[in-house]
């Protein structure tokens, strides 16, 4: 395991769905003593609020109302809701995230969180939320491998869904995330690419630590 030679203040982790970026981000936050925010859960929480209100995730009006309501809530407790991990909420989250008004409504919340020193993971952290982050990582893996991970997760939650369906949904989500006009999913120009396809959780963590240590050392010279 890499040793901590210096402590970064902000680590931005972007990447595709089910690439392992969330698990990696949590490990890195604990390793460096930083706060952690899964920004994807903000959009999942927004989607849940829309659904609970009998609204339409495709409606910018319904989605913006929910996002602004989320800003007034105790998000720590709300983001721990296990139902946010469900497949239905995930699909709706990808829809509400397309609306620029939603991203604007959640922008400052994420920026304020990062000010304390944090690891944030999502789709636009290195490009939009924290463009001046000390270190930026972009995590990806082959679609079939990501689908297998997600399928196992959903089955573990008790959902009855086929691998074929999960793979199709994942590809659709990738297309939506990468193709949206506002803050599309893409690597920041100075992001370091990490392919987790053939890496264990521990190997991905070690590789990320090596990248972070190298970047911080160069910055301190």
Automatic annotation (TrEMBL):
Keywords: ATP-binding, Cytoplasm, Kinase, Nucleotide-binding, Transferase. Residues 11-213 form the Cytidylate kinase domain. It is an enzyme of class 2 (transferase). It catalyses: CMP + ATP = CDP + ADP; dCMP + ATP = dCDP + ADP. GO terms for biological process: pyrimidine nucleotide metabolic process. Its EC number is 2.7.4.25. ATP binds at residues 15-23. GO terms for molecular function: ATP binding; CMP kinase activity; dCMP kinase activity. The keyword ATP-binding applies. It is found in: Cytoplasm. NCBIfam families: cmk (TIGR00017). This is Cytidylate kinase.
